[in-house]
Specification:
By secondary structure, this protein is of the alpha+beta class. 16% of the residues lie in helices and 13% in strands.
Length: 288
């Protein structure tokens, strides 16, 4: 399996080894390529030299890009970049911590600036106070603006009583609240009463064209028609009281319509309404 001595003729003869360089000189190679048309060693000077780099970039020339293309170093940015998971528990805001003079992620904010993106200026800005509340749509929490603050569920404790002028009751208890609102039961408003409840439950008019009257039967109330009410009240027309009569209506014009004096009487002649007369005015006396 190894080559015999006479098998070496399958490999290059010594005369043919001239095509391979045995030294570090390329001149020992046959058929050298002509690289002049591509590049020669000294042609690199047309492209760059050690001192020509100054035409492209210098350490001092970078300063003109700082603040525009290149971000300048800022310790606050370093602080903000360090505020990332896993230090967050959820609900934190990146704010300026005035006590420690640094940006920090806080969940119980007592004050300071809030880092927000200004869509008008298209940049991040630090805001605080009323400006921050307006940005978050909170307005001024101290005056409880109804269009800005919605409280759902929960209990509000530890606050002063809200005055009536501000929409509250000015009290912490129900009885005092009713007094402040002018709603004292039994004085300003009607207290609950079973009889009133019974009356209120009556169907006062099952038929809109039929008038009904509320009548007490001693132990209960009921809504009855006018005829039934008159009967219950002892005012049945034609029996208990005089029914309307046209003759009575006509004769009513002869009725006394004024006061007389002592000794007069009312007299009617059938034409006039009548008048007060003395006895001598109506009768004549003779000696016979």
């Amino acid at each position: 399996y190894f080559a015999l001595k006479d098998t070496l003729n399958y490999f290059p003869l010594s005369a043919q080894l001239s095509a391979v360089a045995f030294s570090g000189e390329y001149d020992s190679l046959l058929n050298l390529p002509n690289l002049v048309q591509y590049a020669v060693t000294d042609t690199l000077s047309y492209y760059t030299t050690l001192d020509s780099l100054d035409h492209y970039v210098m350490d001092t020339s970078l300063s003109e890009y700082i603040g525009t293309i290149i971000q300048p170093f800022d310790s606050a940015l370093t602080q903000i970049s360090d505020l990332r998971y896993p230090i967050f528990d959820g609900g934190e805001l990146i704010v300026w911590n005035g006590e420690e003079s640094k940006w920090d992620a806080l969940s119980e904010i007592e004050g300071g600036e809030l880092l927000v993106f200004d869509g008008i200026q298209s940049k991040w800005v630090a805001i605080s106070g009323a400006e921050a509340r307006d940005t978050l749509g909170l307005e001024d929490m101290s005056i409880q603006r109804p269009d800005s603050v919605i409280i759902t569920g929960g209990t509000i404790v530890g606050i002063e009583d809200i005055s009536v002028e501000d929409g509250g009751t000015g009290a912490s208890g129900d009885s005092t609240a009713r007094v402040n609102l002018g709603l004292r039961i039994g004085t300003d408003v009607q207290a609950w009463d079973q009889d009133l409840q019974t009356i209120g439950n009556q169907v006062h008019s099952a038929n809109e064209n039929t008038k009904q009257v509320l009548v007490s039967h001693g132990f209960y109330w009921s809504a009855v028609t006018a005829d039934s009410a008159r009967t219950d009240l002892g005012l049945k027309i034609g029996e208990d009281i005089q029914a309307y009569d046209q003759d009575l209506q006509e004769n009513s014009r002869y009725m006394i319509d004024g006061d007389g004096v002592n000794g007069q009487f009312w007299s009617s002649d059938g034409i006039e309404r009548g008048k007060w007369k003395t006895f001598t005015e109506k009768f004549e006396f003779t000696d016979t």
